[in-house]
Amino acid sequence: MVSVSPIIRKLSIPEFTINAPVLVDVYIQAMNYDKAIRDTRIEVWRRNSQNPGFTAVTALVDDQVVGVAYGFNGSPDHWWQHQLRRGLRQLGGPTETEFHIISDYFEVAEVHVHPDFQGHGIGRRMMHELLQDKASSYAILSTPEIEDEANKAFSLYRSLGFTDLLRHFRFDGDQRPFAVLVASLPL
């Protein structure tokens, strides 16, 4: 394996919105999604940059964008929190602890590393930079379910202290099952 020394840096909101097409391309490659979703995702990502607490980081190798992570403060007004509440209600909650978690979290909306650069610690470094100095008590993210959690994403999240909030959860509009994971901050 070739040694990779990425530069991890925070992006301002203008930098993020201008570079959204390149950042979304990394997302599409990392997730092996159809390129037909590109324009829609660019617009969604640009809209997300307007959420309170928005923070974005990128990973660069030789001036090439090879990773992106972003998130923002959770809010009861967001679609995602409505989904979390629905999932917790289906399990008989939210419990007092779960209610506290979903009342004070930073939503890790996206974390992606280009496939050619995975396995070099880039995701870990981006997560640490993204979640550094957050006022929230928790970070929450979702990731597609994988049998036996046998992929690099699960391995990374578990090593950072993320535990289960919801498992095999189906978000409205997506039939894939997801794991929703939570970690106390700071990591």
From TrEMBL:
GO terms for molecular function: acyltransferase activity, transferring groups other than amino-acyl groups. Residues 11-187 form the N-acetyltransferase domain. It comes from the Bacteria. Keywords: Transferase. The keyword Transmembrane helix does not apply. CDD domains: NAT_SF. SUPFAM superfamilies: Acyl-CoA N-acyltransferases (Nat). It comes from Corynebacterium suranareeae. The keyword Transferase applies. Signal peptide: none annotated. This is N-acetyltransferase GCN5. InterPro entries: Acyl_CoA_acyltransferase, GNAT_dom. The lineage of its organism: Bacteria, Bacillati, Actinomycetota, Actinomycetes, Mycobacteriales.
